[in-house]
Amino acid sequence: MNHVNAILANFLWGMVPAYYFVVRSVDPLRMTAYRFVFTFLLLLLIGILLRKSYTLHFLRQSLIPAGLLTINAYVYLVAVMGGHVLEAAYGYLMAPILTIVLGRLILLEPLSVNQWTGTIVCLAAIVFYAAMAYTLPWFGFGIALPFALYLIWHRQKGSLSSIEALKHESLVMLIVPFSLFAFFGSELEALVLFELGGELGIVIVASGLVTVVPLALYVNSCIGPSIIYLGAYQFIAPIVSALVAIFLFEETMTMAKAITGTGLLIGLAFVTLPIGSYFEGKTRSTN
């Protein structure tokens, strides 16, 4: 069952662009605010049902990760709702690599041969993309870097489960919708009433489920399957996102994008799968 949860979680993450395709008429900043509000309300309900409360200590501790998640969520929404879904999918592939690099730079964690190889392959893929497109995959970086920093922060200082941490962080992230109301007032209020009272109202409210359900499935899946399987399942989300980009958003899969995506997939394979260990074992067995 845990394998099913892991597969389903990654599939749902890959399908998230399809959800934002439905609500693409909503401004990305407002959609980010909606997502934070309804994620908070859903997690608040779960906390009440499980009789788990907020603590001031963990709320203070959540300021930095909440800020990183806010940047990650907003850049992702701007990319997807602007039709740059393939580049957003690069973020899925770049995040593990950036986490490893930052782990080396910040936490001074040693890198294995596989990790060095995967990092070099991904760097080569990004350089190739820059040479062909005359620009860097900025949306991919904007999605991957804050999330990688978020993971590094939790590795250093996090002491809560993923769901508990997100519950506290979602409360802090209410600063975004409150700030919007403070700046735009009645004008924004009219827009919110129009959008939530219209045909898209139920879909917008479901943004909380879109955020929490895959995460809950993934957290539950981490108990049981080996890290090899969990690593392999990470390939599902970017591949599904790429298919959504091509068939729903009708993005053009250029040769540069295809080669870059393939390079990032190969790099991620070196990082998450025991490729080097397999060949080392083969070499030893023949000696």
Note poorly predicted spans: 278-287
How many individual domains? 1
User: Can you tell me the overall shape?
Assistant: globular
**How far is it from the N-terminal to the C-terminal residue, by CA?**
40 Å
Which structural class is indicated by helix and strand composition? mainly alpha
Major sheet: size, sense and barrel closure? none
Number of helices: 15
Rg is 20 Å
**What is the share of helical residues?**
over 70%
Could you explain how this protein is built, in words?
Helix content is 82%, strand content 0%. It has 15 helices and no strands. By secondary structure, the chain is mainly α. Helix 5 crosses helix 6. It has one domain. The protein is globular. 40% of the residues are buried. The chain has helices spanning 2-22, 28-50, 56-61, 63-81, 85-106, 113-133, 138-157, 162-172, 175-197, 201-205, 207-221, 227-233, 236-247, 255-272, 275-286.
